Amino acid sequence: GKTVPKKFENVSVMFTDFVDFTENTRAIQPIALLKELNDIFLEFDSICKSEGLEKIKTIGDAYMAVCGLPVLNSYHAKRTVEAAKRMQDFLAYRNDVNDQQWHMRIGIHSGPVVAGVIGKNKFAYDLWGDTVNIASRLESNCENGKVNISKNTYELIKEFHDCDYRGEIEVKGGRKVEMYFVI
Description:
- The chain is α+β, with helices and mostly antiparallel strands and 183 residues long.
- Helix content is 36%, strand content 34%.
- Strands 1, 2, 3, 4, 5, 6, 7 and 8 form an eight-stranded mixed sheet that branches.
- Strand 7 (163-170) and strand 8 (176-182) form a beta hairpin.
- Helix 2 runs antiparallel to helix 3.
């Protein structure tokens, strides 16, 4: 009948979001739109599974996943960045062979979260904490086709991936976050 939330000290949270989604979907019939999203998110699910990420949820055209829980993984940041790059590569390939074009931003932050299930109906495993908020802000401050990571994530992946430092960028709430684009 109930679950106990658990704190995880170091995970990587990823948010994706399609650029200009609302504008781009005005001319698409609802069934076609659902097929497009389903095709894309099924591939994202496959990528996440192969990289060891746990899909948390989709919210409209946004996709949220985490690595490092429920099974601890010391390479959570590396695997999350690799999943993000594979997602961007998949969309680029898909755009080359389809009329409908999709462009996406991705934000990743690493740090502590609380995970668990709340509510009585439609149970859903979810995450809470500043790490989730910062990952979301990184996505919204990203550019089309890029993967935007925090300094925390950069420190964990710098020996595996080249990155461009973007500086400290103010995000929603007036906070400044050091950001890097993964190359």
